[in-house]
């Protein structure tokens, strides 16, 4: 039981990662695919933040009388990864807007049929 | 002062030039500017390669933070060699772009095209130069995002769905790499590649490192389109503008292949990846299936760009086969093939783009009779096609020669035979196009005076690549010297890392 409780943040990571991955693969709607991709990426952010925690350490801000801090490096890395994620999402959404204009739909099976007809 | 910052210049130049290109806005002005910047980056890469051939390793601490704490740029023969190929191809493709994109991209988007191209170049150079595992992920995403944009610039609406699929697959791949790098950081507490290499040895049998290796390998395989993770590639290459396809086919997958070499040889170490985890067998099987399945797929396509796209996946199989042999010659064959395949596929896609420029279609039926109407373009296509097949006096022969030598060194007779049978499939798919061009009459409906030779700005870079195909097929001293010293260097560093942890002095 402790094994589950002690690592609950990692269980959340695994659940979110698989849920997001499943949505990306199975969703037919392109916007939902992007949402799934975001959930998938967010789970990785949580993985990084979790590993930065030093047990008993406080936030990595210099304070008198505190010697044990959490590791700030994963936070900085994830700040970069979030920026990358936002950029990817915006490019994806921009593509969806253009797909909607060109095909009149954002459902994958519908525009696949349209291209076969050409 | 200048010499000191030489290493950072191939990344910084295109990165700074990209927004300036966007501001210039004017089509011709931004073309000249982007080409000049790319040529300059190529010149610096040449300097880096000559420097590494004498000094072996150059290191640069970004922002003055010394490694392993700060981000390190690290150049050795292996990445200097690939960097030169990438920046040279980028310059040639930019020269070619001017006429090609006028036909395929709306004029209001020309400056955007050059901006995205420069960003992609900056990202690719960054991947090659960086010595930091996380930084590699960031540069990978810079180049990938630029690539998705480039693919979606074509006027055919199918490019949008191809770009979207590429975006989904590419992001999953990059996120897998991010997870893998996270696993390594979790165990070792460092992101610097050399530092990682030393510390990983201690934890070799740890489950975290094993999982990290699995995630990174799958992620990189998506990026380099290793069978069966190649599904994004044919659609993206077929529907992207011709100049973009020529650039991507000759650089993007090659850089991903370099990333795989870097992770296997520098970070994880040979013994761990191949002997303990048995990756060599997995890679070898996938490579052979890639060669046969995708060569076969190439023979049944009707669109020439799709034929060449499937052929690219098959050629990636040859490169992976080189690594999976785990020998200096095998790795050398892989590295030479990076360079040689860039020359062949660059020339082929440029020729196809020239056909689209004049005829307006790239179906095989549109190639009928072009041997007479566009003699220079089709001659270039034929020579580059012979190079894909591996005919002597072309670079393709050199790659296949070293690959077969490497297979025979280890008594893999069947493997050597399979490589040669794979080349026969290439005869079939290249032959179909060449046969249509030279031995079939142009369709009666088409006025034969309408179709002329392509403009010289398209022919020039195409023929530079074709002549390079022949030149490096005859005088192999430069490519083999660079590739063999790169491959020896990679094997050496891999064993040094192993020796360090065992406290055995060299």
Q: Output the strand order for the largest sheet of chain B.
A: 1-2
Shape of chain A: elongated
Structural class of chain B: mainly alpha
Number of domains of chain A: 1
Q: How would you sum up the global shape of chain B?
A: globular
* DSSP strand tally of chain A: 0
How can the largest sheet of chain A be summarized? none
Oligomer: heterodimer
Provide the low-confidence segments of chain B as ranges.
none
Counted beta strands of chain B: 2
The number of helical elements of chain B comes to 20
The interface involving the most residues is between: A-B, 28 and 25 residues
Task: Lay out the secondary structure.
The complex is a heterodimer of chains A (118) and B (506).
Chain A: H1 2-6, H2 8-26, H3 30-52, H4 73-103, H5 108-117
Helix pairs in contact in A: 2-3, 3-4
Chain B: H1 9-24, H2 27-55, E1 58-61, E2 72-75, H3 77-104, H4 110-129, H5 133-151, H6 158-188, H7 193-200, H8 207-224, H9 232-239, H10 242-268, H11 270-276, H12 279-299, H13 304-324, H14 328-359, H15 370-373, H16 375-389, H17 395-409, H18 413-439, H19 456-474, H20 477-501
Antiparallel strand pairs in B: 1-2
How would you explain this protein's 3D organization?
The complex is a heterodimer of chains A (about 120) and B (about 500). Chain A has helices at about 1-5, 10-25, 30-50, 75-105, 110-115. With about 120 residues, chain A is mainly α. Chain A has one domain (about 1-115): Helix Hairpins (Orthogonal Bundle). In chain A, helix 2 packs antiparallel against helix 3 (about 30-50) and helix 3 (about 30-50) runs antiparallel to helix 4 (about 75-105). In chain A, about 25% of the residues are buried. Chain B has a domain at about 280-475. Chain B has a two-stranded antiparallel ribbon. In chain B, helix 8 runs antiparallel to helix 10 (about 240-270), helix 9 packs antiparallel against helix 10 and helix 10 (about 240-270) runs parallel beside helix 13. The two termini of chain B are about 35 Å apart. The relative contact order of chain B is 0.09. The mean pLDDT of chain B is about 85. Classes of the chains: A mainly alpha (about 120), B mainly alpha (about 500). Chains A and B meet through helix 3 and helix 4 of A and helix 5 and helix 6 of B.
